[in-house]
Amino acid sequence: MNYKKLGVILGKIMVLEGVLMVAPLVVGLVYKESLIHILAFLIPIVVLFALGLLLQTPKPERNSLYQKEGFALTALVWIIMTLFGAIPFVINGDIPNYVDACFEMMSGFTTTGSSVITDITAISHSTLFWRSFSHWIGGMGILVFVLIFIPESNEGFSMYLLRAESPGPQVGKLVSKMKVTTRILYLIYLGMTVLEVVLLMLDKPIPGYENEKFFFSLLATFGCAGTGGFGFIPGSMELFHPFSQYVMSIFLILFGCNFSLYYLMLIGKIKDVLRSEEFKSYFLIIATAVTFVFSSLIWRFESYPQIYTTEEAFRHSLFQVASLMTTAGYTTTDYHVWPMLATTTLVLVMFIGAMAGSTAGGIKVSRIVIAIKGAFINVRKLISPRYVAKSTFEGKTLESKTINDVFAFITLYFFIFLTALFLLAFDPINGQIITIISDAGTYDVEHGFFSNFSAVLTCISNVGPAFEAVGPYSNFAGYNGFSKIVLTFTMMLGRLEILPVLILFSKRTWKQL
Questions:
Q1: Which of 233, 246, 321, 350 could form a disulfide with 289 if both were Cys (CB 3.0 to 4.6 A apart)?
Q2: By the 8 A CB rule, do 120 and 91 touch?
Q3: Cα(136)–Cα(359) distance, rounded to whole angstroms?
Q4: What is the pLDDT of residues 41-79, one digit of tens each?
């Protein structure tokens, strides 16, 4: 392990996080918050700058890093970002428990959106901004941004970082130079972010929050861009007007697309975009899911409390499918009490996730398509042993290694899922009755198996809200410290797609090379 080079990069990351913390510090000054809220960000900024510069002092003998070092570094960066990013919440008292603060911060950077905050109205503007801003930072990936500053001589190492942090089975450069690739990605990301803020500003302000129009538009956009889901007012996105809800639905779907497709569109290769198998599968799944949910709400196959007009039923169906499939987790209504067909559909899209190369979590549409094709190939080979597979994906021959890698990932995914689910079974909260207050009324639910099942699912898929006791109008505050640590690591495993975290904690990774 090239420890000195590792220290230099970690030092740069820490300095960068200190720079990023200036934004919530400015928000605190603008809203004239108390001295403790200002110091809550000022103190970590000073510490991050001091430690970051200190780590960059030793000069590494070897300037390059191997693939395993790049993967381990990626996971380590996300842990350090979380540990320091949680400090302001503890200092200002918004989230006084450090384990809770780390859960909240990891949820932010991994764009999960699960929260332990029970009263969002008591949280300061600077904390609200830092939570939502962490979605935007983590959406494209903090290391993708850092790659802009890595020298061209480290092009191979840059590719390791991109593969470790970018979701999906196939990751590559858009152009020959990594710096140019990362700049293109971030310019597209930034441009879409600005466009959504502008469109949200065109809508009427939320009643009772007239002075917060720009601030709320910014926070909502951070969540959509990073496909996170931190709410900043009661009821998540319920109080936003229909126009804003439609805007957010559309942008959630757009941010769930592979960003390389936008580059192809910019250079005029529209036909290549339309020929993409994953692109077509992604929109087909969304359309099918919206149809199932909308039908169950309109035709009322079974009784449920809410009464929607046709437009409301369509809007809520579109929003919730877009939000949960792109793993954003925003909500406009209490979908927990919807008919079984609707809730089952939402659970399935939470597993699937959006496209590879997007800001979303989940297994990814590309892996689902490859896994289905791989399963058919294996069945065909059992029937005809001499059968030679000629299956393709995105215009390229689907090799056995790619199929095996996908099967391996899905196996690890469900192994971690089941392990986390087992560990949550030890939590004393199991069996307790939780009172939920939502737009569907007030009702009691038992914190049982499905609560834990959906909690693990929402964390490993980086969605946010779950079902039953941890549904859209509840939170994760009831879990004990051990369960929150388990779920915190589950979020990181889901966001970094398992392997970088496993490599980080492997003994062989840390042997001196």
A1: 321
A2: no
A3: 9
A4: 999 999 999 999 999 888 877 666 667 777 788 888 899
